[in-house]
Amino acid sequence: VQLQASGGGLVQPGGSPRLSCAASGSIDSINVMGWYRQAQGKQRDLVAAITSGGYTNYAASAKGRFTISRDNSKTIMYLQMNSLKPEDTAVYYCTYVVTGGPNYWGKGTQVTVSS
């Protein structure tokens, strides 16, 4: 499985970028995809996750501001981020996992929130 994330960049505080992650390869029909982020000097933390059935889970920092979704093919995942703050600055990684399988990671996309 290969994951390609896009949509990062320099964003002003309060901005609303959307990240995308395209999955390709041997995609299982039952899986979980998610977004993690890692700020400089900090650990990598979960932002949000979504199952192939549409169940979602959010970190406390993302609830109410971020929305995770998938397209109908279930191979493209999005993270709509609203009301961005400087503390949202991080490298955002997308992941893919199936029960009993390895956790696949994309290369990450940098999001910098600054005026």
Look at the helices and sheets and give the structural class.
mainly beta
Strand content: over 45%
Mean pLDDT: 95
Helical percentage: under 10%
Radius of gyration: 13 Å
Largest sheet report: 7 strands, mixed
Shape: globular
* Uncertain runs: none
Which H/E pattern describes the elements? Answer: EEEEEEEEEEE
Q: How many helices?
A: 0
Tell how many strands the DSSP assignment holds: 11
Distance from N terminus to C terminus (CA atoms, Å) equals 37 Å
Concise structural overview:
This protein is mainly beta and 115 residues long. Helices cover 0% and strands 52% of the residues.
Question: Which secondary structure elements does this structure contain, and how are they paired or packed?
Answer:
Elements: E1 2-6, E2 9-11, E3 18-24, E4 32-38, E5 44-51, E6 56-58, E7 66-70, E8 76-81, E9 90-97, E10 103-105, E11 109-113
Parallel strand pairs: 2-11
Antiparallel strand pairs: 1-3, 3-8, 4-5, 4-9, 5-6, 7-8, 9-10, 9-11
